[in-house]
Structure formats: C-alpha cells, structure tokens
Specification:
The structure is a homodimer of 146-residue chains. Chain A has 146 residues and is of the alpha+beta class. Chain A folds into 2 domains: 1-86, Winged helix-like DNA-binding domain superfamily/Winged helix DNA-binding domain (Arc Repressor Mutant, subunit A); 87-146, Dna Ligase, domain 1 (2-Layer Sandwich). Helix content of chain A is 48%, strand content 21%. Chain A is built from 6 helices and 6 strands. Chain A has helices spanning 2-13, 20-31, 38-48, 54-66, 106-119, 135-142; strands at 70-75, 79-84, 89-94, 100-104, 122-123, 129-133. Chain A has a 3-stranded mixed beta sheet with strand order 4-3-6. A two-stranded antiparallel sheet of chain A has the order 1-2. The A-B interface holds A 62, 72, 74, 77-78, 80, 92, 94-95, 101, 103, 107-108, 111, 114-115, 118-125, 128-135, 138 and B 62, 72, 74, 77-78, 80, 92, 94-95, 101, 103, 107-108, 111, 114-115, 118-125, 128-135, 138. Chain A binds a DNA duplex (30 and 30 nucleotides) through residues 12, 15-19, 21-22, 38-39, 51-56, 58-60, 63, 78, 80.
DNA sequence: TTCGCTATTGTAACTAGTTGCAATAAAGAG
DNA sequence: CTCTTTATTGCAACTAGTTACAATAGCGAA
C-alpha cells in the first residue's frame, strides 16, 4: 500500500497522471513474486479491470520501465518480462530446464567498475540475464560415466 | 570461403542438410562487420536469392544459433540481432546515443567463475548486452555546472 | 545415375507487439 | 463544483515474428 502511495507521489511530481490502469498494473507486479510477461500482466489485470486493453498494458509497462518503477528483462529468445523495481538483481537462467536464479547486483558491481575504467562506459543495467546450465542439468552431461 | 567449408562439414557431420538458403544467410553474416536484425538479413538475402522468404530467415537464424554458428543478442527493447560466431564478446550499448562497444569475453570470465563457485551455475552466455551511458553522453548530465 | 527418405522450404494463417488518432478523464485554476 | 488543458486510453489498423502443413529438394543407398 505504501509503495503505491510512493509511486503516486513520484508520478505527480514528474507531471504524469495517476490512472487506475497504472495502479492496477503496478499492483499486479507488486503482488507477483516473480517476473511476468505482458500477456500474463494483461490476464491478471482483466480481473481487476475488465475494460483494460492489451495495448495499454504494453504502453504502461514501457512507461513504468522508463520511470524506473519497473524493470524489464529478456528471457529466452525475444521474450520480455517485467518485474517491480526493488533491490537490484540479475538472473541466471538454465537453458536446459529454465530454472531461474536471482543474484545480487553486488556481484556485478566490480565488473561495472572495470567497464568504467577500461571503456569509460557507465553501465546501469540492473536486470541482466545470463544463460547457462544449472548444477542439476550439468550432471547428465558430465557425471554419467561412473 | 574456408569458413563456409567448415560450416558445411559441421552441418553434414551433425546430420543436417546444407541448403543454399543456409549458405546465403551464413555468407551475409560473415560479410557483415556488425550484428544484423532478421529484417536486415532478409533484405540482403533478397539480392542473392530473390525467392527466399522471411519465415525461412527467422527459422534459419534460430537454427544456426542452436548450432552455435551464429550468436543472438538482445539490443534495446525486444530487438534480437544476430552475428557470426567468432571470438566471444559482449556489448556495451549507450542507451542515450545507441553507440555500441564490443568487449572481450575475458573481462567476464572472472565473473563467470564467481557464478560457478557461488551458485553452481555454469554460465555460457557469449553475447551478453549491458546498457548504460557512453563517456560523451555522461558529460551533459554531469559536467555542465562549470 | 536414379530412387527413396525425410529435413527443409514456401505458403498462408496465425499470435505478438506497436502505433496513429479520436475520445476520455486526471488534475490544476477559478 | 465546474471548466479547461492535455496526458492517457481504447480502438483499429498496422508491423513483427511464429507455426502447421503440403511441396520441394538434399543426400545416402543401390
């Protein structure tokens, strides 16, 4: 609830409007414990607000991402998913079983400093995705000899 | 040319067919000095092979990516681009001007080792994209005081 | 070389995502 | 409370990307 109030203030102070559509979509992302793709957001929003269109969902997600209230990430080939902007974190996704692990941003902070020093680029990706194999899915390929 | 022969052998040895469509698309990616999106690949392919369809371009790019001959990367919101698989590298993209810098994989190797130790995940992303601000685009926001 | 198997392509219909524009409604002024 | 401004929405048409299925064509076998 307090998060919603905070978002309301932020929007007001930046000259944007607080609309029920935006509040519904923010609420959905806050209550989700994981990332959602636009269609999932749309489906959940239908319950709270049957008239809401998919175009508005796409536009609102992009808008909230621009405002830094929501983080967008790519998972798999082309799928964009969204998540409420909380603690900065990144994803390790197993490309075999799809299991997703969150890692703290602090693990990448040193890398970002290295980028800054060696290239001048100030990186601010807060939601980077890395693909690989989780421990379970490495096993069949490596340990089946014995 | 020798790269094409190598790809031919690889496809044969894995039981896949060597088709003119695949060769054309591989050639285009080899001759491009940068990454291309599917539409750009399609347009260039039209010259060499007018009958080629866009569906085949999408399918072939996904296929070549699966085979490890081509690398796919996300740039911007939802755009997937492709690049011939050569040296492993990653991208730093300026979200203000869009300028893209390549960085060697070696810079991320230590991070991957850290992932492996702390989570067990064996990361193999060879084409990760980081967003931020390039040195020129940082200037107006930071240095305009004096 | 010819044949047969089947991976691959092209077609066309489909789903996903975007955008222009008129209608609506948030929010400040009176 | 009412009016005015204009950001935002819904609609509908659009572009981008995917997929089912029949036709085509690699390529190994004879």
């Amino acid at each position: 609830m307090s998060e919603n109030l905070q978002c309301t203030d932020t929007l007001h102070s930046r000259g944007f409007r607080v609309t029920p559509q935006r509040m519904v979509i923010l609420r959905i992302l806050q209550e989700a414990d994981t990332h959602l793709n636009p269609t999932e957001v749309y489906q959940r929003a239908q319950h709270a607000m049957p008239g809401l269109t998919e175009a508005t969902v796409y536009r609102t997600l992009a808008f909230l991402t621009d405002q830094g209230m929501v983080l967008a990430a790519h998972i798999g080939s082309g799928q964009l998913v969204y998540e409420i902007a909380g603690h900065a974190h990144h994803h390790l996704i197993c490309r075999a079983c799809g299991y997703t692990l969150e890692i703290e941003h602090e693990l990448l902070a040193e890398l970002y400093r290295l980028f800054k020093v060696s290239t001048g680029y100030q990186i601010d990706s807060l939601h980077t995705t890395f693909f690989g194999l989780c421990p379970e899915c490495q096993a069949p390929e490596l340990n089946n000899v014995a």
